[in-house]
Design brief:
The chain is mainly beta. It is built from one helix and ten strands. It has an eight-stranded antiparallel beta barrel with strand order 1-3-4-5-7-8-9-10. The longest helix has 22 residues. The N and C termini lie far apart (about 40 Å).
């Protein structure tokens, strides 16, 4: 029950922030998708790590701009692997708040994006396990034209220890495409 309440509270926060930012919307709505991404996640107290390569997706995000230099960006990402009848998946729901140093409604330039996320790990014959985390991304956007930009990003995330999981540390890099709808 506690897990369900935590997930519900996080989802309500994400929806609330999205609604507030949508009301403040003036100049841009942005859709982003990962083209290729790499991530290494290590588990505290273990020699094991998970290396993920995502091509043709990996994440999707929608940016709602509060002003020329600040956005709220709900994000979904996922990873799925199957081998010898066993399946493993990682699903993450997050909210980032990118700050663009040059303003410009996020169409180009360097940004820093603190974020909060909820990650669910699931595997064949193992109970699903969830983890809350905090992270930060540092990236840049290179304008392709008035409506699109290439997004290059590096990230660090820390997953907090829970009843079922040890803490995790993740480092990632991704290349994505952003399209501006407004």
């Amino acid at each position: 029950m506690r897990k369900l309440l935590s997930i519900s509270a996080f989802a309500a926060l994400a929806v609330g922030l999205t609604a507030l930012s949508a009301q403040a919307q003036e100049k841009a709505t942005e859709l982003s998708a990962g083209l290729i991404g790499l991530q290494v996640t290590s588990v505290d107290g273990s020699d094991n790590s998970l290396f993920e390569i995502a091509t043709g997706g990996g994440y999707v995000a929608m940016g709602f701009y509060l002003n020329p230099g600040l956005a709220v960006e709900p994000t979904l990402s996922g990873y799925y692997a199957s081998s010898d009848g066993s399946n493993f998946s990682v699903f993450t729901l997050g909210v980032a708040v990118p700050y663009y140093f040059q303003g410009g409604w996020g169409r180009k330039g360097v940004y820093l994006a603190p974020r909060v996320n909820w990650t669910n790990y699931s595997a064949t014959d193992v109970d699903s396990q969830s983890q809350f985390g905090l992270g930060v991304a540092l990236g840049t956007k290179v304008a392709l034209n008035d409506a699109a930009a290439l997004r290059i990003q590096g990230s660090f995330d820390y997953g907090f220890e829970s009843d079922q999981l040890a803490s995790t540390t993740s480092f990632g890099a991704s290349l994505g495409l952003s399209v501006f709808l407004k």
